[in-house]
Write a structure and sequence with these properties.
Largest sheet: none
Low-confidence stretches: 107-114
Shape: globular
Strand content: under 5%
Number of helices: 5
């Protein structure tokens, strides 16, 4: 069962990465990203050069796509500035997946809660 759960998690993360990449492209307004340029290791600040206003725009797109289940502001609220600058796509993907699981009543181990 663990193998099936791992595969489902990987599929969810791949889907979320694709959705997040599309949002990043919107934020970058026409700047063409090379295929494969956005990976889990891609950093918002250093690699994509997103500024704070860009992150605000991304937060709006996340809310538009996922509703209140994913709150980007709450996610970064306890981070230091350097931690936000070094934030990578994979960490945000993991956060989104956990938020969606919680909203659906599914624990991170794949077991549906009551």
């Amino acid at each position: 069962m663990s193998g099936a759960t791992d595969e489902a998690d990987e599929a969810d993360e791949a889907r979320i990465l694709a959705e997040l990449t599309a949002m990043i492209q919107q934020v970058l307004e026409g700047y063409e990203l090379e295929e494969g340029e956005v990976t889990p290791a891609t950093r918002f600040g250093r690699d994509l050069e997103l500024e704070s206003i860009d992150l605000v725009t991304l937060a709006g797109l996340l809310e538009e796509r996922y509703g209140g289940a994913v709150n980007f502001a709450a996610f970064v609220a306890d981070m230091e500035l350097e931690e936000i600058i070094e934030l990578d796509v994979g960490r945000l993907v993991g956060h989104i997946r956990r938020c969606l699981e919680a909203a659906d009543g599914v624990r991170s181990d794949g077991v549906r809660s009551r």
